[in-house]
Design brief:
about 525 residues; mainly alpha; 4 strands
Length: about 525
């Protein structure tokens, strides 16, 4: 089943290259629906009481280098796989309702991107994970560059230069991660047989000194992908240039791969370094929360408001992971799903607003709610979820994250709370400026059509459904999270430190070996 989910989008994408131009869009939609059906089947059959790997595939691939074709599903990736499938259905369906230039290439690249993203979540071999992590960049490089918007007339960058900047940032991080992955396998082998199996590498373990520098190589790749504060330089221009159907899935899913990488790779393989650099990562996370929030309520371009709010939300998710507590990690996974379900509808609404107003500047919008109450109601649900209104799943996710932070680092928790307050401001400002206020003269204001409703309504229903039953995610993620955090707790404990020669047994004082 894991292989079927992984390769179904690519198979449909390849077949679509031989279909008539008019049929290729709906063929791509069918491919995403098949993938979603497989993902739902996996979720239904998933054993929520188990922390082990399910639907596993493990076959030798490059046996001389110890690389396996190893896939599997557990509590860490189950709902991220489902999120990927859901958002790709929405993004591709939205595109299919509109005419696309070079349609065969566009849909092929969209489906290749889905396979690469699913591969990153499913991979249980470290080198296979790196391969899919890098492969994700390729289709989006062409999607953003060839189908993007030229912003040079507005004082911005061309689509090609914005995309090149994004690739340079992310490729540097990816190359560092490749070096780190090879080093991890070689050092863990210690003259024995080489393996890139994440489970096997976790059993072998690395010395604390090796963990320190390898940790930062992986962290750089993941923080750039999210993106985090100081590593987000590629984001504004790339978001302004990107075609909106591709941007919806890019922002909704790909940013989560970096956060997921911390849970799948960094915490299990480098527990000592994770404990040692916990506060450094938390500082980066809090800086992302504060910076992203401030920038979100100073921007007037709706794309950038959504983009900077994503920086803030990914900061929350990172803080939850590096609270190194079960509640924090549970909340981080739930919030990854929540954010994906919220930000994708935002970009769909951005596209609808652009068609009606001809602009992405909120200062030139307003009054749409008078003639489009259904669109306004759907947007209100999305906006309230964005600001984590009590009763929403986003509120539950942030509550778990803050609870984990309070248990671990209470000062960091108090700083993070300010981000919750700021999110209310920029979410409500975005909604009020676009839906209410005085309508500009000549503004085209009409109700949402059936075709856009078919895309937007299911996504909003997912938000509402998860708000009513967030335990759907939490019950299935918790066993694996508890297992991961227990290993981190062992690294933090005096007995774990004693094993590394860092505790003086006479007075229980930490000392360096």
């Amino acid at each position: 089943m894991s292989s079927a989910i992984l390769w179904a989008p690519l198979a449909f994408g390849l077949a679509g290259l031989f279909l008539p131009k008019k049929a290729v869009g709906w063929w791509a939609v069918l491919g995403t629906l098949v993938t979603l059906g497989l993902a739902i089947a996996v979720a239904v059959g998933f054993d929520s009481s188990s922390s082990g790997l399910q639907y596993g595939v493990n076959e030798p691939w490059i046996s001389g280098l110890g690389v396996d074709y190893s896939l599997g599903v557990d509590g860490l990736n189950l709902f991220l796989i489902l999120l990927t499938a859901v958002l790709w259905v929405g993004g591709v369906t939205f595109a299919a309702f509109r005419e696309q230039e070079r349609a065969k290439s566009f849909y092929f690249l969209m489906l290749v991107a889905e396979t690469a993203t699913l591969g990153s979540f499913l991979a249980q071999d470290l080198l296979l994970f790196v391969l899919f992590f890098d492969l994700m960049l390729v289709p989006f490089y062409f999607l953003f560059g060839a189908w993007g918007h030229d912003r040079s007339a507005e004082g911005g960058k061309t689509a090609a230069s914005a995309t090149l900047q994004m690739i340079v940032y992310t490729l540097i991080g990816s190359l560092l991660m490749l070096v780190a992955a090879i080093a991890t396998a070689v050092l863990a082998a210690d003259g024995g047989s080489l393996t890139f199996s994440i489970a096997a590498l976790q059993e072998h373990g690395l010395s604390e000194g090796s963990q320190r520098w390898i940790f930062w190589f992986f962290a750089a790749a993941f923080l750039v992908k999210m993106p985090a504060f100081l590593l987000h330089g590629w984001m504004p221009d790339a978001y302004r240039a990107a075609p909106l159907p591709a941007l919806a899935v890019f922002s909704g899913v790909l940013a989560k791969v970096g956060a997921y990488g911390f849970l799948r790779v960094v915490l299990p393989l480098f527990p000592d370094a994770s404990v040692e650099f916990q506060e450094v990562i938390l500082v980066i996370a809090l800086a992302s929360i504060l910076y992203g929030s401030v920038m979100a309520f100073t921007q007037t371009n709706v794309r950038l408001i959504a983009g900077y709010s994503s920086v803030a939300q990914l900061g929350f998710i990172t803080a939850g992971i590096f609270a190194l507590r079960a509640d924090g990690s549970d909340g981080a996974i739930l919030q990854m799903v929540n954010h994906g379900l919220v930000v994708a509808p935002v970009f769909v609404i951005v596209a609808i607003l652009l068609e009606r107003t001809g602009t992405e500047d909120i200062r030139e919008m307003g009054g749409l709610a008078l003639r489009a109450p259904v669109l306004a109601a759907l947007f209100l649900i999305v906006a309230l979820a964005t600001l984590a209104m009590p009763g929403s799943a986003n509120f539950v996710g942030e509550f778990y994250i803050l609870n984990g932070l309070f248990q671990a680092k209470i000062v960091f928790a108090f700083v993070a709370i300010t981000g919750v307050a700021m999110s209310a401001y920029y979410a409500l400002r975005l909604y009020q400026q676009t839906m209410h206020n005085r309508a500009p003269e000549g503004l085209l204001s009409r109700e949402i059509g059936v075709r856009d409703g078919l895309v937007l309504v299911p996504l909003v229903l997912c938000i509402v459904g998860l708000a009513l039953y967030p335990q759907l995610v939490l019950e299935r993620t918790d066993p694996k999270v508890q297992q991961t955090i227990a290993e981190i707790s062992e690294a933090e404990s005096p007995s774990g430190l004693l094993a590394k020669g860092r505790v003086n047994t006479a007075d229980n004082v930490l000392v360096e070996p």
